[in-house]
């Protein structure tokens, strides 16, 4: 059988490795240490030194196709690898999705709506951007942000200096604050042959900038934007030449769906698909990158809910299983820090 390389050692890599094993593939994980949760589940593992050609050559030698489970990896090593082994999705998807300015411009050029935004690389530019966009607004680092990290909300122009210091004076974008009723995501999959499919959109509720819960079917305020958002996501996947899962996050507003950000990978808001869809996002990602036909994205029940188990929720886990229809997923992370995603649970009502 073939070997799939996975760059990154988190829970997404772990769930990809499980899906790959079910389809008869072995996985080789490149991760910081053998205790990484994905490495524990993979067939083999190389310690991550993304900038070492020796390490990358070893990964290329041992794999038939390479994918990634996080986008905060330098583009250089991924481009180097893609010269030796197919990397899916390709470096183009990665380079756009890891830069908030590029992803917003890319999606806007394809007809997507975004919040008003401006690139900010100095305090002077930040002040000019606040004058143009106004407050409230959100300052986000251009790169490397996740789970609301690297973001500051600005209620008033007087907070500019403190906000600039807060994000470490790094290149950033300033976004106008969007008034929305709900958040949702489109999880789309593009096959090696260009086939496109997407899942019904989950309603995503966040707490402290972190996804707390996804619910399906989505309420009417989201459902009315479904077709427009899914069409846009398909267009983005095609324009990127993307192969695999691509996730776009949206705000549901009076004016239509407003694009927030994208991830060139399986996504936390798609974890419900393991039990709640005919084919999980992880299996469909593996199918796509291995050139297999894509599976059905239909719901398996009338109602599906995914709840993230974050940080200190740990003590409640055993009692959660007292409810027989609850599926518990624990990621095998040792230390529960506040804000750390430790697992999730899914409930499907038939
Ligand atoms: P993720 O973990 O999803 O990658 P992230 O750190 O990249 O998160 P965003 O998705 O950009 O951050 O923002 C996190 C949350 O903050 C959003 O889901 C939304 O609730 C809120 N938010 C972000 N940008 C805006 C905006 N322009 N207007 C209103 N709310 C926003
Ligand atoms: Mg993000
Ligand atoms: Mg987000």
From TrEMBL:
The keyword Zinc-finger does not apply. ATP binds at residues 100, 140, 145-151, 175-178, 183, 206, 260-261. Pfam families: ATP-grasp, PurK_C, RS_preATP-grasp-like. GO terms for molecular function: 5-(carboxyamino)imidazole ribonucleotide synthase activity; ATP binding; metal ion binding; phosphoribosylaminoimidazole carboxylase activity. GO terms for cellular component: cytosol. Residues 104-290 form the ATP-grasp domain. Keywords: ATP-binding, Ligase, Nucleotide-binding, Purine biosynthesis. It catalyses: 5-amino-1-(5-phospho-beta-D-ribosyl)imidazole + hydrogencarbonate + ATP = 5-carboxyamino-1-(5-phospho-D-ribosyl)imidazole + ADP + phosphate + 2 H(+). The keyword Ligase applies. Pathway: Purine metabolism; IMP biosynthesis via de novo pathway; 5-amino-1-(5-phospho-D-ribosyl)imidazole-4-carboxylate from 5-amino-1-(5-phospho-D-ribosyl)imidazole (N5-CAIR route): step 1/2. Its EC number is 6.3.4.18. GO terms for biological process: 'de novo' IMP biosynthetic process. It is an enzyme of class 6 (ligase). Catalyzes the ATP-dependent conversion of 5-aminoimidazole ribonucleotide (AIR) and HCO(3)- to N5-carboxyaminoimidazole ribonucleotide (N5-CAIR). NCBIfam families: PRK06019.1-2, PRK06019.1-5, purK. Homodimer. Belongs to the PurK/PurT family. This is N5-carboxyaminoimidazole ribonucleotide synthase.
């Amino acid at each position: 059988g073939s070997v799939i390389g996975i760059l990154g050692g988190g829970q997404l890599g772990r769930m990809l490795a499980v899906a790959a094993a079910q389809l008869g593939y072995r996985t080789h994980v490149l991760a910081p240490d053998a205790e990484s949760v994905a490495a524990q589940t993979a067939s083999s593992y190389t310690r991550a030194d993304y900038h070492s050609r020796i390490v990358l050559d070893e990964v290329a030698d041992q794999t038939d196709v390479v994918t990634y489970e996080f986008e905060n990896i330098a583009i250089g090593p991924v481009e180097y690898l893609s010269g030796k082994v197919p990397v899916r999705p390709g470096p183009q998807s990665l380079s756009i999705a890891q830069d908030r300015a590029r992803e917003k411009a890319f999606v806007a050029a394809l007809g997507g709506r975004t919040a008003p935004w401006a690139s900010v690389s100095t305090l002077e530019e930040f002040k000019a951007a606040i004058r143009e966009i106004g407050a409230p607004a959100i300052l986000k680092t251009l790169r490397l942000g996740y789970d609301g990290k690297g973001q500051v909300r600005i209620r008033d122009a007087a907070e500019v200096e403190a906000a600039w210091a807060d994000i470490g004076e790094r290149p950033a974008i300033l976004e106008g604050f969007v008034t929305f009723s709900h958040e949702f995501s489109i999880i789309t999959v593009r096959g090696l042959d260009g086939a496109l499919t997407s899942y019904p959109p989950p309603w995503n509720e966040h707490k402290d900038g972190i996804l707390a819960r996804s619910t399906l079917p989505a309420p009417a305020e989201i459902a009315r934007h479904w077709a427009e958002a899914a069409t846009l996501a398909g267009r983005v996947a095609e324009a990127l030449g993307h192969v695999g899962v691509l996730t776009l996050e949206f705000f549901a507003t009076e004016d239509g769906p407003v694009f927030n950000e994208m991830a060139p990978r399986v996504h936390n808001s798609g974890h419900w698909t393991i039990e709640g869809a005919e084919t999980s996002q992880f299996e469909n990602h593996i199918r796509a990158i291995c050139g297999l036909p894509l599976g059905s994205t239909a719901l398996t029940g009338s109602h599906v809910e995914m709840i993230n188990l974050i940080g200190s929720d740990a003590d409640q886990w055993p009692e959660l299983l007292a409810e027989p229809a609850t599926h518990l997923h624990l990621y095998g992370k040792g230390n529960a820090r506040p804000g750390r995603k430790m697992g999730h649970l899914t409930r499907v009502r038939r």
